[in-house]
Design goal:
- The structure is a single chain.
- The chain is mainly α.
- The protein has a single domain (11-86), classed as Winged helix-like DNA-binding domain superfamily/Winged helix DNA-binding domain (Arc Repressor Mutant, subunit A, Orthogonal Bundle).
- The chain has helices at residues 11-21, 33-40, 44-56, 74-80, 86-90, and strands at 60-64, 69-72.
- Strand 1 (60-64) and strand 2 (69-72) form a beta hairpin.
- Helix 1 (11-21) packs across helix 2 and helix 2 (33-40) packs across helix 3 (44-56).
- The protein starts with 10 loop residues before the first helix and ends with a helix.
């Protein structure tokens, strides 16, 4: 079951988290915004904008800051796995 979106989230945010999580795959992925966009059918700019918000909230983090490569953080993993409720994300400011 997919986690409920926090009030500030859109389907783009969940799609980004899910592609990095790579559910069904043997390993989580580390990807650039361009590659994420290619895999979730959102524009690169939209993905980039949402990545910044997800990073600011601690749901994703840099894998390689110089290369602009991102990975799921422990917090993002907890959210996707249902250990962190969307309500906990709603009470935080941007």
């Amino acid at each position: 079951m997919r986690p409920r979106l926090a009030d500030w989230m859109t389907p783009v945010d969940r799609d980004i988290l899910e592609v990095l999580h790579n559910a069904g795959g043997p390993h989580e992925l580390v990807l650039s915004p361009r590659i994420i966009a290619e895999n979730i059918d959102w524009s690169r700019q939209t993905v980039r904008d949402h990545i910044m918000a997800l990073r600011d909230r601690g749901l994703i983090e840099y894998y390689d800051e110089t290369g602009g490569i991102y990975q799921l953080s422990d917090r993002g993993r907890s959210y996707l796995e249902g250990d962190l409720d969307a309500a906990d994300l709603e009470s935080e400011s941007e």
